[in-house]
Design brief:
25% helix; 30% strand; 11 strands; alpha+beta; single chain
């Protein structure tokens, strides 16, 4: 009986400790990433909103949660942001409305790409050039969706850079994204354009 009680108390302490660690990682003002203040998004950033302890949090991921079940949002390409340091990845703070997004990043699932290397893909000092894209690409980007007939460049801007552990190369004809944390979506290309999204 005493052993069971001791184990339960230890488990409760560990849950409380790790729970507080998680809460601590989400609060406060992050330290800015030098060289990444007032940069422009080079693709849409998809994420979801949750309420934790009465506070609304905005979360996104390298896995690109393109259709989470609840609280889905996306930040449009060419939005000005500042990047901050966060132990789970980094933060993006929109310059237009102050919204802070906690962006999960795992280098191991991105082929060893460092945070800075990844930031150099998804942000830039100048706005992304969209004028050369087709009407289908521009429609998908504006709506944050992938449409049949979009080019690879259009898909990358609309849904983000695909995670390398499932899409090792952008030359591949199947790109894998995540609908949410559990369900994947495959974008299949034929002749450089979207043939299907499953």
């Amino acid at each position: 009986m005493r052993t069971t009680t001791t184990i339960m108390v230890m488990a409760a302490v560990l849950i409380l400790f790790f729970g507080l660690q998680g809460c601590a990682s989400m609060g406060g003002d992050p330290t800015p990433y030098e060289g990444y203040t007032n940069v422009y998004l080079q693709n849409n950033i998809h994420g979801y909103t949750r309420v934790s302890r009465g506070k609304t949090e905005h979360l996104a991921s390298y896995a690109n949660y393109v259709q989470p079940d609840t609280g889905h949002f996306f930040v449009p390409v060419n939005t000005a942001v500042s990047v901050g340091k966060w132990r789970g990845g980094f933060t993006l703070t929109r310059q237009d409305n102050g919204q802070m997004i906690y962006f999960e990043y795992r280098s191991g699932n991105m082929g060893g790409m460092s945070v800075e290397e990844y930031l150099n893909i998804i942000t830039g000092p100048e706005k992304a050039y969209l004028k050369g894209l087709s009407a289908t690409d521009r429609k998908g980007i504006k709506e944050g969706r992938v449409l049949k007939g979009m080019t690879k460049k259009g898909v990358r801007i609309a849904w983000g850079y695909p995670a390398r552990h499932k899409t090792p190369s952008l030359d591949d004809n199947v790109w894998t994204y995540w609908r949410n944390r559990w369900v994947m979506k495959a974008v299949t290309f034929s002749g450089g354009k979207v043939a299907s999204v499953r």
